[in-house]
Amino acid sequence: MFEGKGHPLSDESLTAAGQSLGVGLPALWAVMTVETSGCGFLSDRRPQILFERHWFRKLTKGAFDAEAPDLSASTAGGYGARGAAQYERLGRAVALNRQAALESTSWGLGQVMGFNAVMVGFANVEAMVKAMCDSEDAQFQGMVGFIRSNGLAKHLQAGDWASFAKAYNGSDFQKNHYDTKLQQAHARFTAGPLPDLRVRTAQLYLTFLGYKAGGVDGWFGTNSQRALVAFQKSKGMPPSGQLDDASLAALAEAAG
Asked: For the residues of the chain, what is the DSSP string, one character each?
């Protein structure tokens, strides 16, 4: 359930968003990096998610408090492990109330809450989830839609990280130092270079194929090179460790 194509983030999507919002790419990369370490998918092609028990309780009016107190509670928290473990929680919540479960979950690169689906440009939460399972571009557009709909671009333009974090992450943003993390990430990306989307695409494909690429961050380090060499060998290609056009095409084909 929720496994999709896993198409990687495109340069066209990034460029269009930066131009439409009037925001520099370092700021957009900062938001993605703080929210999901810059990758919208798990290794099994399912989107990065976080199930929020307090929202599930609110949307179901406490109907499942007694039956599933770990899924329905008045306070935030109790998340458990990140990654695939969140889908176990989501699956149990879906069995109780599918729409409320999807709306109580944050999705993809920008961790957009499901109940914001219409506001960020989707017909409904089902359409949003389907799109976000298919591509990081859809996930990114959800993030951009939230920024646009809430008038948050001005905070990114001004480098007002506290105001942005409060509006994007909630009034408790200081508990997790969201504003500081955003500021630090922005400074790093401003100093450059920005993540290389070509490298990032290869890393995502390698991850889907079961290779340990050292993350999906757009930096072609030792782990990524070793993973690429292993892939090249598996395909009978020269094990150059170079991300040439032939290797990227082979990765795309293998990853489907």
From this structure: ------BPP-HHHHHHHHHHHT--HHHHHHHHHHHHTT--B-TTSPBPEEE-HHHHHHHTTTTTTTT-TTTS-SSS----SSTTHHHHHHHHHHHH-HHHHHHTEEETTTTEEGGGTTTTT-SSHHHHHHHHHHBHHHHHHHHHHHHHHTT-HHHHHHT-HHHHHHHHH-TTGGGGTHHHHHHHHHHHHHHSPPP-HHHHHHHHHHHHTT---S-SSS---HHHHHHHHHHHHHTT--------HHHHHHHHHHH-
- How far apart (Å, rounded) are the C-alpha atoms in residues 54 and 32? 24
Prediction pTM value: 0.93
Question: pLDDT of 101-154, one tens digit each?
Answer: 999 999 999 999 999 999 999 999 999 999 999 999 999 999 999 999 999 999
Count CB-CB contacts under 10 A for residue 15.
11
Q: Is the pLDDT of residue 172 over 90?
A: no
